[in-house]
Queue: 4 jobs
Job 1
Amino acid sequence: MVTLLYFLFWVVRETWGLSGKRVQDYTLYTGALGTAYLVFNAYQVTKNENDLKLCSDIVKACDSASKDSGRVTFICGRAGICALGAVIAKHSGDARLQDHYLTKFKEIRFPSDLPNELLYGRAGFLWACSFLNKHIGKETLSTIRMRAVVDEIIKSGRRLAGKGTCPLMYEWHGKKYWGAAHGLAGIMHVLMDMELKPDEVEDVKGTLRYMIKSRYPTGNYPSSEGSESDRLVHWCHGAPGVTLTLVKAAEVFGDKEFLQAAVDAGEVVWKRGLLKRVGICHGISGNAYVFLSLYRLTGKVEYLYRAKAFASFLSDRAQKLISERKMHGGDHPYSLFEGMGGMAYLFLDMGEPSKARFPAYEI
């Protein structure tokens, strides 16, 4: 508990307290909104009203800093600020502020060149819709609005796939990525939360089966279509992000093939996932969520043990190894997705592992 409070204190101090409460990076990924999301998780554990007030203050600053932003997603755009702001306002009992953020959310417009992936694209906007509908109420964001976005994602995926063996395919900056952040795993993960037509369900299943069939002999997954570099074992690229998506597929479809593939990918993370970085996106903290997800799916305590092993390594050794330059603290060392903020989020979730969810990915 002392370790957790220490990390929470330092993250808030470094990202908010020392900034004079001025926001330069408003994103959840590396900026102040990530701190707000972390503090909101702390509030859900402690029910401390001071945490809720701090969270609301940070979101208001992010709202102001992002008012001219054209980014539309939860992790890197306006949708995250408006969605989290509305949910916090609901918990605070502030109906006027909740309506303010919901109105701002519904005013979000897509640029013409919007991609489909999670961090900057349509999937990232849809995730924000699901977040609102979970925390505020069904149809907070209407099925009709979400359906229009799903239509664009499906149409785009089928068009790029053409007559290939994978039903859906997507590009980001000209590359056909597979991972959770920019590619197939992230887009399929979000689509499984949508109301899909039968043929669309089959396309999602077929895409996941294509990925399973095309994995490396080691069990790891390529970062992009055709890549032969079996190197990355991260949430953003490789087996960890794909595992979380396969767990979701096993839950949604009840298919043993997806369950077995998730278990197989989890073994890759156990063998190769103790990385030299601490963060959620491409570090040990994010990889620990693979085991928490498998624990939730299977009930097998070996996965809980593995999650605890990764978390304990971070708690016991990360700071010392970073100081000795044997580990990388992240380019944004206190942020949610790259640094100590992700560690603190994981430590909070380890208190009640059956309820743990990878932040801004698992609903």
Note: The chain has one domain: 1-351.
Job 2
Amino acid sequence: MGTLHNHPFFIRYQGGAGDHVVQISAGRTIRSGVGQSFWLRKGRCALAEVPTANRAHSFLVQVASSDQQNVNAQVAVTYCIENAEAAAAHYDFGLYPREAKKDAQGLWQIDETVTRIAHSALASTIGAMALSEAISGALERVSGLLTQAFAANEQLQATGVGIVDVRLLSLRPDEGVESSLRAPLLEQLRAEADRALYERRALAVERESQISENEMQSKLDLARKRADLVDQEGHNARREAEEKAAADAIAVEAESRRIVEKAKAYETDWNTAGRARTANDAAYIQAVAEAGPEVARALALKELAGHMPSFGNITITADVLSDLVSAFTGSAKAGK
């Protein structure tokens, strides 16, 4: 917004980059443009400052449908002032002279004009529709008709206002009617939510049952494998016992054969040794018999001496010595 600097008898105006200033004196336009800077004498002219930037205006319009139900329409309109001189002539954009406590009402007036145009267009369009039709799928159609209404409005064109964009944001009934309309949908949504909950629970139960069945099947498979393992171990043990028994039988049979062979060898050796001893004894007896009684007696004494205990001292008396001498003497004589 431009600024005014007061000096004695003169005023210095400094405009902004987005402000179109119009200087009027005696009903004639003396100066018009954006970003102006100039001096003017007090009380000799009037200034109007018109903003040229786009302005967004959002508002709510309430109209009645054909079945006498209120419909709330949320509208957003973007406009700009294309002809500043025409706008300054039709709306309040005065900058000087103006009372210090009052502001220009030009933009508010344009907003009110835009709101009235939108209300009129929506009232004629939605008034021909039932509530259900207006709030279910008619947003784009109503938005198109609203855009056409602004494009064809001659008042805006005459006052230098250009429409940049028109958007119909929503069409909704009153809160009570909307709650009533939402009730069946809410019930349906609750029913679908309950059905989804029951389905999830049923699915969870089915999954738990499947898990339990899988666990049971796993336990059965494990038990079956354990039974097979026990059978295999028993079979291996029986086979090992049979192999060991067969090996032991073979060892016993071999040992029996060895003992029999050894007994036979002992018997043969014994018979051979016995016959040799018998022949030796017979030869010894025959030799002793042929040698005579003295030899036999001497051998007997030798044998007796070999089996007699040892004596520390032997006392030989005269009688014993005489008997011995007589015995040996007699023996010698008999040998002769």
Note: Helices lie at 84-90, 106-126, 131-135, 139-151, 154-158, 175-291, 293-307, 318-335.
Job 3
Amino acid sequence: MSFSIPFIHKTLFSLVRINASRRLYGKNILRRRPVRVLNVPEDKVTLIRDETFSPKLQHTSEIKTEDTSIGLPRNKDGLIVPPYEKLQKNDSRFTKTLTTLKSRKLREQSGKMLLEGKRLINDAIDAGIELETIYFSRDKELSDIKFKFQENVEILKVFYKTLQQWSNLTTCPGIMGVFKRPTTEKLHILSEPVIPVTIICDNIRDPGNLGAIIRNAAAAGCENILLTKGCVDPWEHKVLRAGCGGHFRIPIINNIEWTHISNYISKSSTIFIADNSGDIIESSSTPEFINYDEAPEENGDEEVEIKRYATMNECNQPISVDETYNDPAELEKYEELTFPCYLYSSIKFPKENIVLYVGGETHGVDARVVKLACDYGGKKVKIPLENNMESLNSCFAMTIILYEIKRQLKEKYILK
């Protein structure tokens, strides 16, 4: 035999490789056309990374060098995520924090608020609200959060099922942020009032309604919002969700007693009550402001002085207390008082110190706000309705009147 055994093995092995390649890559693997290669001198070879080849890629790389996220690590999917700590199931650092933020009393004591969803969290960060802790389940949600203005933020990864159990939404967004509740002073700095209007909300119990009021008042450019005791907590999750970031752009003062209300409005203010229960007084011309100095008062000045005294508020600031707002005999006179009501578009609103009262839809106008309007000089305003409808939503009524005020003030400015 002229052939050796190793040669036979090599021949069989080469045939097996050819058959295997044909099975994997198909029949056309050996039918490819040859590629013609030119012998180009080395001095004429141009690199692919030349600026004439990909100017757009170089432009984007220059923009990325200015990004504040440079230096942060990337995960396996290429997402830029800051360093974080992974929590185990039912970790006390997560459950205790969420338990505190679910209770109104504990939430007010801690001075914190909980936001869900990357859009609301980024909105709060853009407004300058201080972020303390982030809970997330996936790197995708974390990479969308803007951390460029925040420092010393605790970032904790939690199982999605754990977030879902504590979420207030039907579909958990997979990310939660714990923020320090902004003070009234800070919100005064952040807000940019356009119209001299203060909103008084009384007996607003629906979270979505109060959130919409805060949102529209901030959008119209009001000065601040006063919430009497009995309104829903403005920092509750449903109110924050419906507010769409309005909480961070207008000062909100909560839990105000009626006996303290005079400390939060100017003495030269004019009260306007949004009410649809009265009959509109027809007038051919724009009515002048009504003077209520002749309203019946049985108490003398000395008795009023006894009922007015000074105390300290939650910020240790001295405030006056007017106990006449808790006197049934005093309030009974204002319940029977026929208060004039005007069409909202027929009133000539003042240029400053406007106070607009918005009450609950079911309880109607409180006698205490009628007394407040009489003390400061004001009137009821009504929006006409059709099809035998009794009332409008409180938020819609307030918004219509606010933009009428804004329209009048803008026309006065143009005329000047």
Note: Residues 394-415 form the longest helix (22 residues).
Job 4
Amino acid sequence: MSALRRKFGDDYQVVTTSSSGSGFNQAAPKRKRQRFVEKNGRCNVQHGNLGSETSRYLSDLFTTLVDLKWRWNLFIFILTYTVAWLFMAFMWWVIAYMRGDLNKAHDENYTPCVANVYNFPSAFLFFIETEATIGYGFRYITDKCPEGIILFLLQSILGSIVDAFLIGCMFIKMSQPKKRAETLMFSEHAVISMRDGKLTLMFRVGNLRNSHMVSAQIRCKLLKSRQTPEGEFLPLDQLELDVGFSTGADQLFLVSPLTICHMIDAKSPFYDLSQRSMQTEQFEIVVILEGIVETTGKSSSIFLIYGYNVTVNLILSYYSRPI
């Protein structure tokens, strides 16, 4: 904890001054309520009544496998290879059975389809030796078996497809920079205070690792329900909070902890809100940090989403001048 404190500094202290000059420190009351975005970035969204939802996921099978949890990925990986190996070994056994090779395996004057294949385990070992290109030399295919040659070609093609699909899926899943977000920290609370003569919404973000985030950019969304003049109710209307887009301040050089600022001016959604309405209104600020992980050497972007539930966690700091 001391190391983190030295790197990020102390938490924000809420200090406000009234017209009489007396100090005032007030935090919004914490209430247990449902979040749209959790602190760990998980979105509380469930899809329903879409129709043929399963078929839509299966139509993009590769992305579905990449998005699955690791335990399911490993299960599918092992199951697919096991079923494929047993099926192809069974096909070699069927050829040997239909040709009568199993009954003449020890006849020196008989040329079988595959030498030294006389039961299912030996057929399975022949397939593994062929697929893994081990080639012990004891079991081998002969030129007296055209159906075996066709099966060998089919086995090579299908094996390459399965290897490319499953190994590619596992490689992409391992190279995803999701865990990189664990070493990117946001301040637990956001604050509103005076900066440069203007009321400003502020929070901090810092990088624990020495490796840099290349082309880091930050965006903020305000999620709030509203009703249009036509009477339409929008339950999760998204508004953009300007955190320096016009000045380029949203492009971060994230070497040391930075303070992200949103000026509450006439264009801000918070401009018409008072202190009381800040504490009672139901809305949420979602922060999205996007960047390229330097250590991977690839253009892999990392999206870190952090939710500020303003009615719960936002510490308000007001001066005598109302918003």
Note: The chain has eight helices and twelve strands.
